[in-house]
Specification:
298 residues, alpha/beta, Arc Repressor Mutant, subunit A, D-Maltodextrin-Binding Protein, domain 2, 3 domains, nine-stranded mixed β-sheet, two-stranded antiparallel sheet, 10 helices, 13 strands
């Protein structure tokens, strides 16, 4: 229900990037530009200042952002309350999610879903992407949300949202002294990596391979099975790690960790819903649509 042009503006204003907004909304960058231009023409004011490769909100843009936030929250509340009339039937929904999603993305959405659908019994398990896919194929789940690049023929993959993987190190450590490095410098940097089967690891190694860097050449100091474990290790060690930007948001705000840019290398991945081909669940579909409506309104 949230007018799409306003949603595009809201996403650009949050990210201050037309490129990142396009990735989050699964539309092209020219489409984002078109929607913003149409909105500016409709309102008769400029909403963004263009400063070379960066943008910022004008005074009118800041005012619209305040109202867009209120409108988004009002629509979300309306949909939640209206859902009470259309979802009186209960049922059991089995959801599985890979680690990053389970820890940093889905809990808030699950809380809102339970508020909107109190009669639905939800069970929620976590694991790495490979484990969640296996449980789905064993018919132990109705729906999974994963972060890898695998493509099993038995599974239907549908996009949820975009995520960026960034290289981080403890603020003040030797590794964090350079704000930007060349890709080849990664080969001399001690790294903490995720375990085999991790979606984060799969996407990372694929992106590095495309840049001419191979897993066997990395200086892997340690492998750990969760982002939280890796963060705690980083805070007490002089090494670096690739982590989802979702997982380090608090540490970046508190300046405990620092992002190290890699020249010419950006690593993005798509969070995906997974279901078994030929098996549809109305509750699973209801939850999938709920996630799509509410994820970008936080």
């Amino acid at each position: 229900m949230f007018d799409f042009r306003l949603k595009v503006f809201y996403t650009v204003a949050q990210k201050l990037s037309f490129t990142k907004a396009a990735q989050a909304l699964f539309i092209s960058q020219p489409a984002v530009t078109k929607h913003i231009r149409e909105l500016e023409q409709h309102l008769g004011v400029g909403l963004f200042r263009r400063n070379g490769n960066s943008i910022s909100l004008t005074a009118a843009g800041q005012l619209l952002m305040q109202h867009a936030q209120k409108i988004a929250e009002a629509y979300a509340l309306l949909e939640n309350e209206m859902a009470q009339f259309s979802s009186t039937a209960g049922g059991h929904l089995r959801i599985g999610a890979s680690t990053t999603l389970a820890q940093y993305v889905l809990p808030g959405i699950l809380a809102r879903f339970k508020t909107a659908h109190p009669s639905v019994d939800v069970s929620f398990i976590t694991g790495n992407s490979e484990q969640i896919e296996q449980r789905l194929m064993q018919e132990k789940l109705d729906l999974g949300v994963v972060e890898g690049n695998s493509h099993h023929p038995q599974i239907m993959y549908e996009p949820f949202s975009r995520d960026e993987i960034v290289l981080v190190a403890r603020t003040g450590s030797r590794q964090s002294r350079k704000a930007e490095i060349q890709p080849a410098e990664l080969l001399e940097m001690p790294l903490v990596l995720r375990e085999q089967g991790s979606g984060t690891r799969d996407v990372l190694l694929e992106s590095l391979s495309e840049a001419g860097l191979h897993a066997k050449d990395l200086k892997a100091e340690l492998m750990l099975e969760s982002s939280e474990s890796i963060k705690q290790y980083l805070l007490h060690a002089d090494c670096a790690a690739f982590l989802s930007v979702h997982s380090v948001a608090r540490e970046l705000r508190q300046r405990e960790l620092t992002v190290i840019d890699i020249k010419g290398l950006e690593i993005y991945r798509t969070f995906q819903f997974i279901t078994l081909r030929g098996q549809s669940s109305s509750l699973a579909e209801q939850f999938r649509k709920f996630c799509l409506r509410h994820y970008n309104l936080r």
